[in-house]
Amino acid sequence: MTLPRVLLHLPALALAGAMVAAPCFTLAQDEPPAAAPNPAAAQPAAPSASSQAQPAYTLPPEKLAKAIALSRIRNILYIAGSLWGLAVLWLLLALCVAAGLERWAGRVFSRRWLQGLLFFAVFLVILFLANLPLDVIGQHFSRVYGISVQSWGSWLADQGKSLGLSLAIGTPVLLLFNRIVRRWPRRYWLGAWIVTLPLLVLSIFVEPLIEPLFNKYEPLSRHDPALVAKLEEVVVRTGTQIPPDRMYLMKASLKTTGLNAYVSGIGATKRIVVWDTTVGRIPDDEIQFVFGHESGHYVLHHIPKMLAGYAVALFFVYWACAGFADWLARRFGPRWRLPEGSPLASRAGFVVLIFAVSVAGFVLQPASNAFSRHFEHQADVYGQEAIHGLVPDPQKTAIAAFNALGEAWLEDPNPSPFIEFWLYNHPSVKTRANFAAHYDPWANGGHGEFFKSQGRRD
Ligand SMILES: [Zn+2]
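A: This is the predicted complex of the input protein with zinc ion.
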């Protein structure tokens, strides 16, 4: 139940452009969609004395132990990965690898743009190799806990494709940003910001075109026409113009046991995708709820709103990062063998800018996640209202869907509030299920927040 994945990576996108964007295209590197990695707070067995405080999301004992252990692993890997990413960039500068690479590229090619392409291509390969061990560990645990069923060969092939995309898209984009810094050494952050905006829209537009490189898609109507008819009921109720030919089934079962559905694309590429692990495993009314949630993202214009929010934020982020990078270059430039004059305009100096933006992405992650959680909560409300009148009990259906989702991904039923605040781009399954259990605006003849009518069938 996610927004386009590329949006969730936006803070990191920033100046580093497609360097970080490209890996988002692979599902393998995504966190479970219901939430970012979970914390490891042990949940005490619910005392039977106060049965009215029964949580809406629970796991059987053997799965609870697994969920807590896996959550701890996911958290450690996630935080270690973020810090390691920053450390790698710092080491490239401090060990003068970046400066050495720039000189080497200068000897290989005489044309400046070819030197740049070579520099950034090698730079991206270094980052890929540096991250690979943590990715391998993540995939290992994903297999151990039965979330991933992907063979190592297939996983490595996905990594290879991911690297290929990163090189094909990231190298020219980095070169473009580097040129902007050269061309406008003082106001480059403004130029970079202006260029980032259309690139963000473009990345959302092309995401559905890139997804088939990693997974097989087929029209949902071919697989399950009865389900399509049920989803059409939701389409009529929500007034979304999502015709059956924009509903796809993704063959996720080749790689994972997790459940998911998501929205993707914009304009002509807009679509809704349901994983084949979801269809047939949870009842159709729960899929209607998931679909209602996804429709909510479209009806409530979450994609343009998130883009607008990020556009405003990135203006200040770029401005601040330019100042930070400038300070770093003055303080460490000679030690990192950056050229004098305008050090940030060099290839190696550009790595300083990427470092500054990566630090900002890390620090601002809680803000970006809070932004995302707000929209996800709205979509939950919308989803529950959308199925009102279509299913006998929207509360029960939503709770059941959240339990199925949480159990499939082994979501911790009791994450620590701090971890939820820092790492979760969705509210925790616990929060979502508890909300669903209490949300009943129709009691006493009321109506929903987004649907003013009762919506009941006569
Ligand atoms: Zn969502």
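The radius of gyration is 23 Å. Residues 61-94 form the longest helix (34 residues).
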